[in-house]
Design brief:
Helix Hairpins, globular
């Protein structure tokens, strides 16, 4: 069985926007990271960094948001499959959280390197 609708640019864009709206309504971590991005991204352009440094900081700031969205998707799927506390469900959620932590860590390390 194929649960994938036929590809259509405008419809797929609509699905993406619906996903973003859902994340903004339901995911507190995403909202906090987006708020941090709204503050951090202008700083990247204001501070006196080389162009490559600005690009790296911008990419890692956006990477944090991307990884958080993927983590939220993993958590939603796990919750859909089971409401029980199961070691594999916990592991899936913990691994997703670790990916978010690593992306934030990478972003922070670049800030430290570029500021020093």
């Amino acid at each position: 069985m194929n649960n994938k609708p036929k590809y259509h640019l405008f419809k797929n864009t609509q699905y993406a926007v619906e996903g973003l709206i859902h994340a903004l309504k339901t995911e507190s971590s995403f909202k906090l990271e987006l708020l941090a991005g709204v503050i951090i991204i202008p700083l990247i352009f204001i501070l006196d960094f080389a162009l490559i440094e600005k690009a790296a900081l911008l990419m890692t700031a956006i990477l944090v948001l991307i990884v958080e969205l993927i983590n939220s998707a993993i958590e939603n799927v796990v919750d859909l499959v089971t409401k029980e506390i199961h070691p594999l469900a916990k592991s899936a959620k913990d691994i997703g959280s670790t990916a978010v932590m690593f992306s934030i860590g990478l972003h922070l390390v670049l800030w430290v390197i570029f500021l020093i």
